[in-house]
Structures are given as structure tokens and as C-alpha cells.
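Marked as duplicate of an earlier ticket. Keeping the data here for the record.
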Amino acid sequence: MKPIALITGVMGQDGAYLSRLLLEKGYRVIGADQHVSDFHCASLRTLGIDLDIDKIRLDITDPDQIRTALTQYRPDEIYNLAALSSVAESWNHPVAYAHVNAIAVNRFLEDIRAFAPETRFFQASSSEMFGNARMTPQREDTALHPLSPYAVSKASAHWTTVNYRESFDLHCSSGIMFNHESPLRPVQFVTRKVVHSLVQVAYGACGAFTLGNLDARRDWGYAGDYADAMWRILQQPQGDDFVIATGRTHTVRQLCSLAGSLLGFDIVWEGEDETEIGIDRKTGKTLVRVDPALYRPLDSLSLCGDPTKAYEVLGWRAKTSFELLIETMVAEDCDRLSAQNFTRVAAG
């Protein structure tokens, strides 16, 4: 019989890449999401797998729906990728973030304990839990210091996962996922926002765009690589926690410069702090401005993961370089605009 995997949040980039991987490995994939309309299946369609998985509507805050999914499908593995994921928006809706990202995980694990104790459970934890960590790079045993309602909710779910593993001997694991991106990333996330905006400038579809803290430094990897790590984690004989990261960091400013260079821009930076702007050296055109309104109330200035344990135990390491990741995202956005009959106007 095929192993059965239940993926919550299947419509997101992680759910799409993980679904593709599991299908290739012979799984039956139950793709669960609060929305299963054609519009929300865009990521699955992009990868050509929307007809290959069994899609179900599941609200993870509803305990009855969780229990029904467990008893009806009896999954061998559960990958909990469903979450409210915008750090900035979490300040506006802290209670909703607590319900979806933290309390729902507690309910999920309680139902696994009661009805499906043999099921293996993966929790997508977040590097944002570390906040301004005193230790760099961050490891599995680095103290958590969350700086946003989003990070607090993920830290709660993380410790709940650890608690159920240790208290009830369940196969519960967490992957502490550092930032991971792809062409499937929504445009509200900074990597895709930068790439999408610069491509639009290159095709004459928009002018300058705004960003927040250009000095923010992140460990950015490729979502497809990270999906492989999720699967490897649940193949271990016992549950455990793993940092999933590249071990390398770049600033938002460096991200802009790299993406711009791939489109023929030579971005130079003038001014400081809120007055800083990014200008194309060739044309003198302003491409990037700083908007103080986009600064977070509290921000983790630098997050860098130590993936040593993942390499030594899982045999996993990030395969896709930051440069190749951004190049792929730029190419995909260029193809999207070309398909809409936009013509590139910037030298490339």
C-alpha cells in the first residue's frame, strides 16, 4: 500500500513543493487547506500536480474537522504547514495568530495522541522564534527570544511539539525553518516583492518601489530544498528538532543589488537610514526608496542558521545557492510579464 501523507497548508509554496516530492516517492497525498478553489490551487497547477493529490477543505482551528481527517484518512505522516505567516500583519491580528499557529497545533497533537498515536507529525517551526539571539549562528539549542506575535505563536507551537514528544512518546518533530523562497512565494514577502518590483520596472510596468529596513539580514534558501528536509525528518526512527538553513546570510540591500544586476541595472546606494535610495547608475533613475512605515516595531536584525545537525543526522544540505535562487525567481517573473505581452525596456 502507498504511504499516506496529510499536508496542511498545501496551497502554499512549501505545500506545493512537498506534495511534488512525496508524489515522486509514491505517496498518496491528502492536501488540506482552508481554501481549495481553483484560484488557491495556483501553486499546485504551476508544478503540474493539482490533479494528482486529494484536496480537502480543513480548518485547523476546528477540532471536529481535525478529528475527522485523522480517522477518515489515517495518515502515516502529517506535515503541518498551515499558518498565518506575515510577521508584519501579526502585530495587527495577534489573537488570530495565536489561535491558528499555536492553539490549533495543541489540538492537532492532542487528537493524534488520542486517535492516531502511530502517526508521525512534522511541525514547521520558524527562525523568527530566535529573535535577536545572543548566539550566531543559531542552533537547535539556542535560546528562543521571539520579537513579534507571529514569532511568539510559532515558539508556542514548537514547545508544544517538544512537550508531546517527551510526555507521550509520540513521533513529533519540528523543522526550524529559516527563510526559504521560490517563484511560488507571494509578493508580500520581501524576496518576491523585490524581484517582482524590479522586473516590473525593467518591463516599464511600474516606477520606484518602497522597502523597510535594508540592513535586515536573513539566511535565505530554496523552498524545494527545504521540502526534502521535511521528509527526511519524518523518516528518522525517533522524533527530533532540526535547524533547516543554508548557514549564509545576505541583507535586503544585497538582495536588491543582485536582482537588479540580473535585469541589467547597476544599483548604487545614496543617503542613510530613512533617506537611503537605490539608483540605477546607468540612467540615474531611482529604483528603491525606504518607507519608515514598513519598519517592524521590533525586528531580528540578523538570523543565520547552523545546519550541522541536519547534515550529520539527515544527510541534508541546501543545494541551491542564493544567487541561483534569485536568478530563477527573476526568470519566472520575466516569463510572467512576457506572457502578458509586456516588453522589456531596461538594458539586460
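See parent ticket for discussion. The chain has a mean pLDDT of 94.
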